[in-house]
Amino acid sequence: MDSPSDSQLSIGPPENAPVARQDSKNEHYVAPEVKGIYHLSRKSRRAAKNSLQKYQGWEQPPENRPPYHEYVHDLVQGGWDVLKPLDEYMSVDIEDQELVISILDITDSSRHERRPDTYDVLALKKILDEGKPSNVKVRFYMVEQRGNLAASVMGALGSSLDLDPRFFQSGLHGNKHVLPPSERHRAPFTSISFGVPKLSTSLKTDAEKFKVTFYVKPDDAVGQMSTLQEGIQVHPSAGDGWTGILLFTSHTKINLSSANLVPPPSFTSPRPQPKPQTTKSFRELYLEAFSHLDLQTVTASPFYAISPLLRLNCFCWGRVISSIRDEDRRINGVSDTTVGHAEEIKKSLSLVQRGGSFGWKGDDVQSFKETKNALEEDFKHLVQETELLWETREKMASNRRQKAERRWSALTNTFTYVFAPITIISGVYGMNVSEISGSNSNPNIWQFFVAVVVLNVVVMLALALSNWVHIITKHGRTAGAKEAFNFAVGKDGR
């Protein structure tokens, strides 16, 4: 992978970037003392319970629907019933007091420029109204919000960038509920399911899951749109550039540096500058990763642009699988854990094998092929490790069941050995026979034993005859007496 030139700008926030609003600061996200690069902070994992709130008075009458919501509603009325949940969701908006929107531009001179972060929808609309500058080849809108995206943000992005509403619908319920496979594999958007160890619970094997959804909007597909007071203004296209929209559905932070996603420099190379280790959200890690990417390839290939997210996805799922394996070894058994890990990892592998989406450009770029092959190898190895872990857990669970069954069988046999003689003695002495009652009118005890023997012989003959008939009808041959009686005495499972 080529390293960026020295003339490229720093990926960090601009010097004049505004400070986040103090009234909406979440104290749960204060970075704790660093204890290791893979250490996950409990505090940073806990989102405030009341950070998601309904907008007061948002429930609007039908005639006052925002333009994009009206568009979705018209599609539902026109027969696209699959969008009905999105229509209902947009009727009651949810405000996230920790909404963060980062905007990153890749210019035609292969430089990256980060705009100040925004924290509300009005600021986002203003930026969307300005449009993309003519010297910008690629622009990324990175929206970080806990849970489902607010309807107001959907409306701002959807109306200004002319986005497919199924993109937002898939963020609510998943792609499989919206698109068939043939369309899902060629759609301009896709999603990556993440799993990270959930340290806010007592179980070390619990995993917190969330999604990152990515939409690629080519500039040559449709002009950039901005909603102005006097109407819709169409800006000129930027040629072969594109716009990327990323939706991060979690504020989860992890103590990790993006440098772990790329090989370290050689011994003879200049040593990197020391950097303080702090917890970062996945949006911040992705922004940091652009310092290690070839920006010319980013412009040419959307899949290469999201490759840091896929590497991070593979790394995080690997930590989850390792946590489960270590806990199983510690307890010498099968630990309690969440399920569905293998399925999500296989989905990521399938995404890598498609190169993101069959509808994206850049599959002829050399860096695209190298990155795809490397990621495919990593995810295949992770799938093998996951399947091996689950096979081992299944064998261990089977052994535990067999041991439990043997213990129960031994306990049952113990009770049988204790109570069988008592049952036989009480049965004999409870018989109304002449030897016990003293009356000659009652039968003798030897008659009881003769009846038991005769009955057993009759049952054995019936079972032997049944086995003899079964062999004739099934195998077309006559069984011998020994073979027929094997089933009667329990030596043939048939």
Write the layout of secondary structure elements.
Layout: H1 42-45, E1 52-54, H2 67-77, H3 84-90, E2 94-96, E3 100-107, E4 112-114, H4 121-130, E5 136-144, H5 151-161, H6 165-173, H7 181-184, E6 189-197, E7 207-218, E8 224-228, E9 231-235, E10 242-248, E11 253-254, E12 280-281, H8 282-289, H9 295-300, H10 302-305, H11 307-331, H12 341-354, H13 366-429, H14 434-437, H15 445-475, H16 481-488
Parallel strand pairs: 5-10
Antiparallel strand pairs: 1-2, 3-4, 3-5, 6-7, 7-10, 8-9, 11-12
Helix pairs in contact: 2-3, 4-5, 11-12, 11-13, 12-13, 15-16
Q: What features would you highlight for this structure?
A:
494 residues; alpha+beta; 6-stranded mixed beta sheet; two-stranded antiparallel sheet; disordered N terminus
Structure overview:
- The chain is an alpha+beta fold.
- 45% of the residues lie in helices and 14% in strands.
- It contains 16 helices and twelve strands.
- It has a six-stranded mixed beta sheet. A two-stranded antiparallel sheet has the order 1-2. A two-stranded antiparallel ribbon has the order 8-9.
- Strand 8 and strand 9 form a beta hairpin.
- Helix 4 packs parallel to helix 5, helix 11 runs antiparallel to helix 12 and helix 15 crosses helix 16.
- The longest helix is centred in the C-terminal third of the chain and has 64 residues.
- It is elongated and about 120 Å long.
- The two termini are 65 Å apart.
- The N terminus is likely disordered.
Largest sheet features: 6 strands, mixed
Strand order, largest beta sheet = 4-3-5-10-7-6
Radius of gyration equals 35 Å
Question: pLDDT under 50 segments (min length 5)?
Answer: 1-13, 17-52, 54-59, 222-238
Distance between the termini: 65 Å
The proportion of residues in beta strands is: 5-15%
Class derived from helix and strand content: alpha+beta
Number of helices: 16
Order of helices and strands: HEHHEEEHEHHHEEEEEEEHHHHHHHHH
- Give the overall silhouette: elongated
Helix content estimate? 40-55%
Q: How many beta-strand elements? A: 12
